[in-house]
Amino acid sequence: MGKNTKGDFASLLDDLFQAPEAEHGLEKRPTIPFDYLSVADELHSGRIKVANEAAAAEYRDIAAPETAFDALLAAADLPLVEELPAIEPDAIARELGLEKLKAARDFGRVRRDFAFRNHPDRVAPHLKERAIQRMQVANMLIDEAKRRVATAVR
Description:
By secondary structure, the chain is mainly alpha-helical. The protein has helices at residues 9-24, 36-45, 53-63, 68-76, 89-96, 104-118, 128-153. The longest helix has 26 residues, at 128-153.
């Protein structure tokens, strides 16, 4: 184990991490200074365009062979393009089922259920902006329906 000459916790941790490598004669392992998976997701999302057509063609050629995963997708008959959730008020109103609600207490439950499924903190990063729009529209529709029910009761 290391000597921990400085006597502080950070030095102790440094010694612990370096000790197995030094004891076994292993080289220090490289670290990736960024989130590799998010970068890979961005590259494969299609939002990043390759300016050099020769490089883009080479990338397409490398990615062209069908993989086992592609075969599984084809067998499952799943769409390759993700269908985005609707942001139109009519579609969200149908999803909420507002026409069926008659009591004021039901609106809170509907709002919580919708937020549980669609809150921006619970969706994939590329869907956050759309989720924000959906939540704003849903909250507006619920508030309007709640006011209509309250005035109809009076």
